[in-house]
Amino acid sequence: MTPDESNKPVSAAHNDPLAPRLRGSDAPEKPGVRVGFMALTDCASIVMAHELGFDRKYGVTILPTRESSWASVRDKLVHGSLDLAQALYGMVYGVHLGVAGPPTDMAVLMTLNRNGQGLSLSRRLADKGATDLASLAALMRREPRAYTFAQTFPTGTHAMWLNYWLASAGIDPTSDVQSIVVPPTQMVGFVRDGSIDGFCAGEPWNHAGIMDGVSVHAAASQDIWPDHPEKVLASRGDFVRQNPNTARAVIMAVLDASRWIDASPGNRMRMVETIAGKAYINTRVDTIGERIQGQYQDGLGRRWQDPHHLRFFDEGQVNFPYLSDGMWFLTQFRRWGLLRQHPDYLAQARAINQIDLYRQAAAEMHVDTPASAMRSSHLIDGVLWDGSDPAAYADSFSIRARPRRQPEGIAA
Questions:
Q1: Does the pLDDT of residue 21 top 60, yes or no?
Q2: How confident is the model at residue 133 (pLDDT cuts 50, 70, 90)?
Q3: Which candidate among 62, 188, 366, 403 keeps its CA 20 to 30 Å from the CA of 284?
Q4: Rounded to an integer, what distance in angstroms lies between the CA atom of residue 314 and that of residue 61?
């Protein structure tokens, strides 16, 4: 797609070279698929795949379905009223292992985005000097009480970012604070009425709290893990096995939309105008528009350009479902007592992440894929994660929890 073409919708009758294949034995088994999403900026690639007609280009019709909570997404995926969904990486793994609901064979088809989540503190804490992690830890030592923070799902990404962030400063998230589950769209209201001291959630709700004057920016998730995996395109394992052509077609449609979004600032702003609408996020354009371009503020007068802001494609680097990414969430489940013993980390990741299917879709679209399904990163505490010894990594943390039977708030 050329720069001039990148702003044009894709017609369902587009003369695409894949059309003959889609009429043959590789045609999608299910031409219409219900795909769940949450009112978050990173639903964009699913929404734009539908809005711009990329889905019809590959022989499927995506029916975007807005959900009210991640528990709703989980339940509808498990029970089959959703075929696929935007999902929290850790939620998919938690369901597969039975620590986030009834154990269900799950599948990660691709990574939807990297970075772009936030950790916000209430203005009440900011007025007492707590504006980042170090000053929060100092305030908690100076004024001990029950501090309450919210995340969006017990095994989800936001719970893991919040836990890792707090623990890197010596704050035990299992004993020094109370952690509760709140749907992302309700975070600002919970801060406003004093129910919580801060939260970790996706955009645009961190920026919305700043714009409403009720919270301040303490950190971004990319400060914890630069270029971390975030949401994934998820399904049940049996759906993928029964409908491999459909699953591959949806991957291709969403991958095409991801590439379109990241192709230019103009495309990004057109996307913002679309997802801000009532059918999707239902918010003001300027609530989304700044951070989607990497323009951050803390609500206290400081502004900066974040080099690791939310990305959907980045020349294909975003979307590959690395095994090591999924394994990292398993190490944190073990660390925080959600798993009583070490799982077979690599085997579980291989069972869930549909790498072969993704490689097929990417090859059709001439999108590069890495030679290795493992990658390495240094997190906020300087510890290297590369997937080479996950059990030792999980056991290496000085702040960790004892195993327990199931996470609190599992039915939230």
A1: no
A2: very high
A3: 62
A4: 25
Please answer whether residues 161 and 191 qualify as being in contact, where contact means their C-beta atoms are separated by less than 8 angstroms.
no
Measured torsion, CA atoms of residues 37, 43, 46, 52, in degrees rounded to the nearest 10: 130
CB 287 within 8 A of CB 204: yes
The tens digit of pLDDT for each residue in 328-360 reads 999 999 999 999 999 999 999 999 999 999 999
Report the distance separating Cα 382 and Cα 380, nearest Å. 5
DSSP strands (E only) in 112-245: 117-122, 147-151, 177-181, 198-202, 215-220, 231-236
Fold of 5-113+229-295+308-385: D-Maltodextrin-Binding Protein; domain 2 (3.40.190)
Q: One fold for both 5-113+229-295+308-385 and 117-227?
A: yes
Tokens, residue 214: 């009720």
Tokens 């996307």 correspond to: 271
CA triplet 198, 286, 111: central angle to 5 degrees?
A: 70
* 249 pLDDT tier (thresholds 50, 70, 90): very high
User: CB under 8 Å to 182, separation ≥6 — which residues?
Assistant: 150, 151, 152, 190, 196, 199
Domain 117-227 maps to which CATH number in 3.40.50.2000, 3.40.50.80, 3.40.50.10860, 3.40.190.10? 3.40.190.10
Residue 230 CA to residue 164 CA, distance in Å, equals 15
Write the pLDDT tens digit of every residue in 278-304. 999 999 999 999 999 999 999 999 999
Is the model's pTM score more than 0.85?
yes
Place 410 in a pLDDT band, splitting at 50, 70 and 90: very low
Q: Residue 84 corresponds to which tokens in the numbers above?
A: 């696929």
Helix axes 44-51, 244-262, angle to 10 degrees: 100
Q: Where are the domains of the chain?
A: 5-113+229-295+308-385, 117-227
pLDDT at 25: 73
